[in-house]
Amino acid sequence: MRLGYHSITWGGVTGAAAGVTSVKDLVYRVPGDMDRALREISAAGYRGVEMFDGNVREFAEVRDDRPGSLHRLLDETGLSLVGVYTGGNFVYPEILPDELHRVRRAAEDAARFGAAQLVVGGGAPRAQGIADGDHDRLARALDTVAGIAAEHGLSACYHPHLGTIGQSPEQIEAVFSRSSIGFCPDTAHLAAGGGDPAALIRRHADRIRHVHLKDLGADGATFLPLGRGELDLDGVLAAVAESGYDDWLIVELDFYDGDPAEAARLSRAWLDGALDRAGLTVSTS
């Protein structure tokens, strides 16, 4: 296993205001200092980082021979860019071409900076509820996304997320029964959506391409550093090991009421013991 961390903890997630009037320009973005985030992720003992499409796009607009370029920052911190997270509504045919334009741009940026994974969330819940055919539309779009990723030498995986039509175990089944895209299980989102993360990992073991780890509070809504919540994360790691997956484990903590570097260190310390208990080894490269 290799251990990475998502830059989201350094400010949470926002979007781009331009996306209100231009779907093709809507991105996810962390408003915090990404230079600081990557340096603190490295100092906490991680070897990889996942970032949002909007932050990577900002780096893509900086020449590599200038201070602040992502290639230089990755070299200085010893981190690999593991994945880039993007997404879309994926159920509205009229705007789908513009959403796929955005996905393609994210794939181009991910490939430029050496990432292997295009992590994709989405599937819009309509104001009137899920319409007939929405899971079909989502699945077709995800298969197209997987094709775009492959064109750029990337693997694409779907991240079931709260607030989408891929939230509950039944909805996840509806997506995966219609699409061949890979799976990025997120422990806390799966649990908060009513599922058993370990059982879902076992159910879709052959699809796993990427893993997001975070803990969940007793209220079922608060995301926490690993080992600070109620999830059976030892059971999750056992299920991951059984699946045969042996690549990046990404800690992705959306928010921490304190120093984000502290949160990264807390999760890293928990992983040291948990991986040993699961009989998993950590690559130092």
From TrEMBL:
SUPFAM superfamilies named in the record: Xylose isomerase-like (SSF51658)
InterPro entries: IolE/XylAMocC-like, Xyl_isomerase-like_sf, Xyl_isomerase-like_TIM-brl
Span of domain Xylose isomerase-like TIM barrel: 39-272
Pfam families with a match to the protein in the record: AP_endonuc_2
Matching Gene3D superfamilies: Divalent-metal-dependent TIM barrel enzymes
GO-annotated molecular function: isomerase activity
Keywords: Isomerase
Protein name, per record: Sugar phosphate isomerase/epimerase family protein
Species: Pseudonocardia alni subsp. carboxydivorans
